[in-house]
Sequence to fold (216 residues):
Amino acid sequence: MTNFKSFFLFLLICTVAISACQTRIENPSGNCRIGDNKYIVDNYRYIDNVQLLVDCQNPLQRQYWSVFVTDETGSATIHPAPGQESLTKTFCENPEESLALLADKYELCHLQQNSTGSFSPDFIYSPQDALAITRALHRDLRFQVSLERRSVTPGFRETDVIGVCRFNPDENSPEMQVMCEREQLLLDTGWDAVNNYYDENVFELANGLNKLYGID
Fold:
Protein backbone atom coordinates (compact mmCIF):
# COMPACT_ATOMS: atom_id res chain seq x y z
CA MET A 1 0.00 0.00 0.00
CA THR A 2 2.86 2.35 0.82
CA ASN A 3 4.45 1.70 -2.56
CA PHE A 4 1.12 2.29 -4.28
CA LYS A 5 0.69 5.61 -2.47
CA SER A 6 4.21 6.65 -3.44
CA PHE A 7 3.57 5.75 -7.07
CA PHE A 8 0.24 7.58 -7.08
CA LEU A 9 1.92 10.66 -5.59
CA PHE A 10 4.57 10.52 -8.30
CA LEU A 11 1.91 10.38 -11.01
CA LEU A 12 0.07 13.29 -9.42
CA ILE A 13 3.22 15.41 -9.35
CA CYS A 14 3.90 14.58 -12.99
CA THR A 15 0.38 15.55 -13.95
CA VAL A 16 0.48 18.89 -12.14
CA ALA A 17 4.05 19.79 -13.08
CA ILE A 18 4.87 17.65 -16.08
CA SER A 19 7.98 19.57 -17.00
CA ALA A 20 9.64 18.45 -13.78
CA CYS A 21 9.26 14.80 -14.83
CA GLN A 22 10.52 15.20 -18.38
CA THR A 23 13.91 13.95 -19.41
CA ARG A 24 16.15 16.83 -20.41
CA ILE A 25 19.04 16.15 -22.73
CA GLU A 26 22.51 17.28 -21.78
CA ASN A 27 23.61 20.44 -23.57
CA PRO A 28 26.41 19.42 -25.98
CA SER A 29 27.90 22.94 -25.84
CA GLY A 30 28.43 23.20 -22.06
CA ASN A 31 26.76 24.01 -18.76
CA CYS A 32 25.83 27.67 -19.18
CA ARG A 33 22.37 28.85 -18.10
CA ILE A 34 19.74 30.88 -19.90
CA GLY A 35 20.13 33.80 -17.50
CA ASP A 36 23.92 34.05 -17.79
CA ASN A 37 24.57 37.37 -19.53
CA LYS A 38 24.91 36.66 -23.26
CA TYR A 39 22.90 33.45 -23.00
CA ILE A 40 19.67 35.33 -22.36
CA VAL A 41 17.17 34.66 -25.12
CA ASP A 42 14.68 37.47 -25.60
CA ASN A 43 10.98 36.69 -25.70
CA TYR A 44 11.60 33.03 -24.83
CA ARG A 45 8.74 31.34 -23.04
CA TYR A 46 8.92 27.85 -21.57
CA ILE A 47 6.69 25.41 -23.41
CA ASP A 48 5.78 21.92 -22.29
CA ASN A 49 7.88 19.21 -23.98
CA VAL A 50 10.28 21.76 -25.50
CA GLN A 51 13.78 22.44 -24.21
CA LEU A 52 15.86 25.47 -25.13
CA LEU A 53 19.54 24.69 -25.70
CA VAL A 54 21.60 27.85 -25.33
CA ASP A 55 24.92 27.77 -27.12
CA CYS A 56 27.62 28.06 -24.46
CA GLN A 57 30.15 28.63 -27.25
CA ASN A 58 28.25 31.44 -28.93
CA PRO A 59 30.88 33.87 -30.30
CA LEU A 60 28.57 36.86 -29.83
CA GLN A 61 27.17 38.66 -26.82
CA ARG A 62 23.59 37.86 -27.73
CA GLN A 63 21.74 35.00 -29.41
CA TYR A 64 19.93 35.67 -32.67
CA TRP A 65 19.21 32.05 -33.64
CA SER A 66 18.10 29.62 -30.94
CA VAL A 67 17.93 25.82 -30.77
CA PHE A 68 14.86 24.07 -29.39
CA VAL A 69 14.66 20.34 -28.65
CA THR A 70 11.45 18.31 -28.46
CA ASP A 71 11.52 15.97 -25.47
CA GLU A 72 9.63 13.13 -27.13
CA THR A 73 11.99 12.77 -30.10
CA GLY A 74 15.18 14.50 -28.99
CA SER A 75 15.25 16.28 -32.36
CA ALA A 76 16.06 19.97 -32.69
CA THR A 77 14.78 22.93 -34.66
CA ILE A 78 16.23 26.41 -35.16
CA HIS A 79 14.26 29.60 -34.59
CA PRO A 80 14.06 31.84 -36.45
CA ALA A 81 14.63 29.58 -39.43
CA PRO A 82 17.87 30.65 -41.16
CA GLY A 83 17.22 32.45 -44.42
CA GLN A 84 18.75 31.62 -47.77
CA GLU A 85 21.13 34.58 -47.76
CA SER A 86 22.60 33.70 -44.34
CA LEU A 87 22.93 30.01 -45.21
CA THR A 88 24.56 30.71 -48.56
CA LYS A 89 27.12 33.07 -47.04
CA THR A 90 28.10 30.66 -44.26
CA PHE A 91 27.72 27.20 -45.81
CA CYS A 92 27.93 27.55 -49.57
CA GLU A 93 30.70 30.08 -50.33
CA ASN A 94 34.00 28.29 -49.66
CA PRO A 95 33.01 26.86 -46.26
CA GLU A 96 35.45 25.04 -44.00
CA GLU A 97 35.23 21.25 -44.16
CA SER A 98 33.03 20.74 -41.08
CA LEU A 99 30.48 23.25 -42.39
CA ALA A 100 30.54 21.71 -45.87
CA LEU A 101 29.65 18.37 -44.30
CA LEU A 102 26.67 19.94 -42.51
CA ALA A 103 25.60 21.65 -45.74
CA ASP A 104 25.63 18.31 -47.56
CA LYS A 105 23.88 16.46 -44.74
CA TYR A 106 20.95 18.90 -44.58
CA GLU A 107 21.13 20.18 -48.19
CA LEU A 108 21.54 23.72 -46.93
CA CYS A 109 22.72 24.95 -50.33
CA HIS A 110 19.82 23.45 -52.29
CA LEU A 111 16.74 24.98 -50.74
CA GLN A 112 13.46 24.85 -52.57
CA GLN A 113 10.96 27.67 -52.37
CA ASN A 114 8.05 26.62 -50.19
CA SER A 115 4.34 27.43 -50.44
CA THR A 116 4.74 30.72 -48.56
CA GLY A 117 7.41 31.97 -50.96
CA SER A 118 10.15 31.58 -48.36
CA PHE A 119 13.40 29.71 -48.89
CA SER A 120 13.96 29.20 -45.15
CA PRO A 121 14.46 25.52 -44.27
CA ASP A 122 12.18 23.79 -41.81
CA PHE A 123 14.59 20.99 -40.99
CA ILE A 124 14.80 18.65 -38.05
CA TYR A 125 18.38 18.48 -36.82
CA SER A 126 20.31 16.62 -34.20
CA PRO A 127 20.90 18.96 -31.21
CA GLN A 128 24.65 18.97 -31.76
CA ASP A 129 24.31 19.81 -35.45
CA ALA A 130 21.76 22.54 -34.75
CA LEU A 131 24.15 24.19 -32.29
CA ALA A 132 27.01 23.93 -34.79
CA ILE A 133 24.84 25.54 -37.48
CA THR A 134 23.72 28.45 -35.29
CA ARG A 135 27.29 28.99 -34.03
CA ALA A 136 28.56 29.27 -37.59
CA LEU A 137 25.72 31.61 -38.52
CA HIS A 138 26.48 33.79 -35.50
CA ARG A 139 30.13 34.05 -36.56
CA ASP A 140 29.02 35.53 -39.90
CA LEU A 141 26.13 37.63 -38.59
CA ARG A 142 26.21 41.33 -39.40
CA PHE A 143 23.30 43.76 -39.48
CA GLN A 144 23.27 45.87 -42.63
CA VAL A 145 21.05 48.42 -44.30
CA SER A 146 19.10 47.45 -47.38
CA LEU A 147 19.09 50.64 -49.44
CA GLU A 148 16.30 49.30 -51.63
CA ARG A 149 13.94 48.72 -48.69
CA ARG A 150 15.45 51.33 -46.34
CA SER A 151 15.46 48.70 -43.61
CA VAL A 152 17.89 46.66 -41.55
CA THR A 153 18.67 43.07 -42.52
CA PRO A 154 18.35 40.48 -41.19
CA GLY A 155 15.14 41.33 -39.36
CA PHE A 156 15.31 42.02 -35.65
CA ARG A 157 13.13 41.76 -32.57
CA GLU A 158 11.49 44.65 -30.75
CA THR A 159 13.63 43.89 -27.71
CA ASP A 160 16.70 44.35 -29.92
CA VAL A 161 15.58 47.91 -30.61
CA ILE A 162 15.16 48.62 -26.91
CA GLY A 163 18.51 46.96 -26.26
CA VAL A 164 20.20 49.32 -28.71
CA CYS A 165 18.49 52.30 -27.10
CA ARG A 166 19.79 51.31 -23.66
CA PHE A 167 23.25 50.10 -24.70
CA ASN A 168 24.93 53.53 -24.88
CA PRO A 169 22.10 56.03 -24.41
CA ASP A 170 24.46 59.02 -24.30
CA GLU A 171 25.56 58.22 -27.86
CA ASN A 172 22.04 58.23 -29.30
CA SER A 173 21.30 61.05 -31.71
CA PRO A 174 18.27 63.23 -30.89
CA GLU A 175 16.36 61.51 -33.70
CA MET A 176 17.33 58.10 -32.36
CA GLN A 177 16.23 59.06 -28.85
CA VAL A 178 12.82 60.10 -30.13
CA MET A 179 12.52 56.71 -31.84
CA CYS A 180 13.62 54.94 -28.64
CA GLU A 181 10.96 56.62 -26.53
CA ARG A 182 8.34 55.85 -29.15
CA GLU A 183 9.39 52.19 -29.41
CA GLN A 184 9.33 51.77 -25.62
CA LEU A 185 5.82 53.17 -25.48
CA LEU A 186 4.68 50.82 -28.25
CA LEU A 187 6.28 47.85 -26.50
CA ASP A 188 4.73 48.77 -23.16
CA THR A 189 1.29 49.01 -24.71
CA GLY A 190 1.58 45.72 -26.57
CA TRP A 191 2.00 47.06 -30.08
CA ASP A 192 4.60 45.59 -32.43
CA ALA A 193 7.53 48.00 -32.38
CA VAL A 194 9.72 46.35 -35.01
CA ASN A 195 8.37 48.11 -38.10
CA ASN A 196 7.79 51.47 -36.48
CA TYR A 197 11.06 53.33 -36.84
CA TYR A 198 12.17 56.25 -38.93
CA ASP A 199 14.00 55.70 -42.22
CA GLU A 200 16.72 58.17 -41.27
CA ASN A 201 17.61 56.00 -38.26
CA VAL A 202 18.34 52.76 -40.13
CA PHE A 203 22.11 53.31 -40.36
CA GLU A 204 22.38 54.27 -36.70
CA LEU A 205 20.15 51.33 -35.78
CA ALA A 206 22.20 48.82 -37.80
CA ASN A 207 25.41 50.09 -36.20
CA GLY A 208 23.79 49.88 -32.75
CA LEU A 209 22.62 46.30 -33.35
CA ASN A 210 26.15 45.24 -34.30
CA LYS A 211 27.50 46.80 -31.10
CA LEU A 212 24.74 45.21 -29.02
CA TYR A 213 25.53 41.73 -30.38
CA GLY A 214 29.28 42.25 -30.02
CA ILE A 215 29.90 42.13 -33.78
CA ASP A 216 33.20 43.73 -34.78
Summary: The two ends are 65 Å apart (CA to CA). Residues 1-22, 113-120 have pLDDT under 50 and may be disordered.
